[in-house]
Amino acid sequence: MVDDIARERAIYQALKAVDEVAAALQTHLMEEHGAEAERAAAQSTFTNSLKLLRQARERIGEGLRAVEADDIAESDRISLRNE
């Protein structure tokens, strides 16, 4: 049982880190390159990248839900929710 808990925590930490990187990339694309966050925005390299990041973050969210991230997040000391 302890191994399952440790594995789920490791998966949670990895998924959380990837999600944070994706969020930073999204912010960078919008702030520095003027990429449009709207789904109906004109297509460009930046909006295509945003679309891919959005899809990736949706999949990451599915993974976080699968490992019951809400339960793990309560004990996560590294979280913006704790600030």
Account of the 3D structure:
The chain is mainly alpha-helical and 83 residues long. The chain has one domain (2-21, 37-76). It is built from 3 helices and no strands. Helix 1 runs antiparallel to helix 2 (45-66). The longest helix has 32 residues, at 2-33. It is elongated and about 50 Å long. The model has no long low-confidence stretch (mean pLDDT 82).
Question: What is the gist of this entry?
Answer:
This protein is mostly helical and 83 residues long.
The helicity comes to: over 70%
What is the overall number of helices?
Answer: 3
Low-confidence stretches: none
The biggest sheet amounts to: none
Instruction: Give the rounded overall mean pLDDT.
Output: 82
Shape: elongated
Distance between the termini: 31 Å
* Cα Rg: 15 Å
Overall strand count: 0
What is the H/E string?
HHH
Number of domains: 1
Class from helix and strand fractions: mainly alpha
Topology:
Blueprint: H1 2-33, H2 45-66, H3 69-73
Helix pairs in contact: 1-2
Quickly list its features.
83 residues; mainly alpha; elongated; 0% strand; 71% helix; 3 helices
